[in-house]
């Protein structure tokens, strides 16, 4: 996978050279390049912004430096099929999810455009549609000073899904959101710590019971912390024990979906 990031603060992205992503770059699993938008300006002040048409507070990023920067990361004609995916972090974008991370991890090239100030001139987005698969994406319903923090989060979430980046691929299967639920709690040695004990089932050696306990812990944690995730959960083929676990949390299975009983209030509370 090739990843290109364009920013006026390329040093902001230095942490992407650390840990598993840094090793993946060294091993050739990921090609990750950070480009300084100011290198594509033509004036001696390396200006990347100007006042907004129509008035208003703040500054807007100029279109021409962005067009030249984006052109510089386009693949050479004939070397790759399809358009690169251009991800523009924006509070007005689609919500970034684990499912989206899996989807983007299948792409051969991702380009991230780190906006600043009041954003990038909208004409850049319109122009880029002909050359890129443009996707405005949001980390959540809040505003950051720029796109760099969001890009670091997305690159890590996506990059770790590229085959070979995470040593134990099984760890990707059981983590939060991989199956639409939150991850179960985990424990390590010692089994007794400051009057807190590891659940006995984890010490039993009974892998069937351990798997069921972990699954039911996922249900309870998701119901308590992120009940919205259960709205899309497919409960049609749940075994009896799992249905009983959800029933204890206040949910009934109706037409293959989980429905919170009115008298239950907030499940898991």
UniProtKB/TrEMBL annotation:
Cellular compartments per GO CC: cytosol
One example GO MF annotation: tRNA (guanine(37)-N1)-methyltransferase activity
Keywords, ordered alphabetically: Cytoplasm, Methyltransferase, S-adenosyl-L-methionine, Transferase, tRNA processing
GO biological process: tRNA N1-guanine methylation
The reaction(s) this protein catalyses: guanosine(37) in tRNA + S-adenosyl-L-methionine = N(1)-methylguanosine(37) in tRNA + S-adenosyl-L-homocysteine + H(+)
InterPro entries: Alpha/beta_knot_MTases, tRNA_m1G_MeTrfase_C_sf, tRNA_m1G_MeTrfase_TrmD, tRNA_m1G_MTases_N, tRNA_MeTrfase_TRMD/TRM10
Residues annotated to bind S-adenosyl-L-methionine: 115, 139-144
Residue span(s) of domain tRNA methyltransferase TRMD/TRM10-type: 1-231
Compartments in which it is found: Cytoplasm
Major location category of this protein: cytoplasm
EC number(s) reported in the record: 2.1.1.228
Organism domain of life: Bacteria
Signal sequence residues: none
Enzyme class: transferase
Function: Specifically methylates guanosine-37 in various tRNAs.
Family designation: Belongs to the RNA methyltransferase TrmD family.
HAMAP family xref list: TrmD
Subunit structure: Homodimer.
PANTHER family per UniProt: TRNA (GUANINE-N(1)-)-METHYLTRANSFERASE
Protein name according to UniProt: tRNA (guanine-N(1)-)-methyltransferase
Gene name of the encoded protein: trmD
């Amino acid at each position: 996978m090739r990843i290109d990031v364009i920013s006026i603060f390329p040093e902001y992205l230095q942490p992407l050279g650390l840990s598993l992503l840094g090793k993946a770059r060294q091993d050739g699993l990921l090609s990750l390049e950070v480009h300084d938008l100011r290198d594509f300006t033509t004036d001696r002040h390396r200006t990347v912004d100007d006042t907004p048409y129509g008035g208003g507070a703040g500054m807007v990023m100029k279109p021409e430096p962005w067009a030249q920067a984006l052109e510089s990361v386009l693949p050479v004609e004939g070397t790759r099929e399809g358009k690169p995916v251009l991800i523009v972090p924006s509070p007005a974008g689609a919500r970034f999810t684990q499912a989206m991370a899996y989807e983007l991890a299948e792409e051969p090239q991702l380009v991230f455009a780190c906006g600043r100030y009041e954003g990038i001139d909208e004409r850049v987005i319109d122009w880029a549609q002909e050359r890129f698969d443009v996707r405005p994406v949001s980390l959540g319903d809040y505003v950051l000073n720029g796109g760099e923090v969001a890009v670091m989060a997305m690159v890590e979430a996506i990059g770790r899904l590229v085959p070979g980046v995470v040593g134990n691929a099984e760890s990707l299967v059981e983590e939060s959101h991989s199956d639409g639920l939150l991850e179960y709690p985990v424990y390590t040695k010692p089994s007794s710590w400051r009057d807190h004990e590891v659940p006995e089932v984890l010490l039993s050696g009974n892998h069937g019971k351990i798997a069921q306990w972990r699954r039911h812990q996922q249900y309870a944690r998701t119901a308590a912390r992120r009940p919205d995730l259960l709205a899309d959960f497919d409960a049609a083929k749940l075994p009896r024990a799992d249905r009983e676990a959800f029933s204890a949390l206040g949910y009934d299975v109706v037409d293959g979906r989980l429905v919170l009983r009115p008298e239950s209030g907030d499940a898991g509370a």
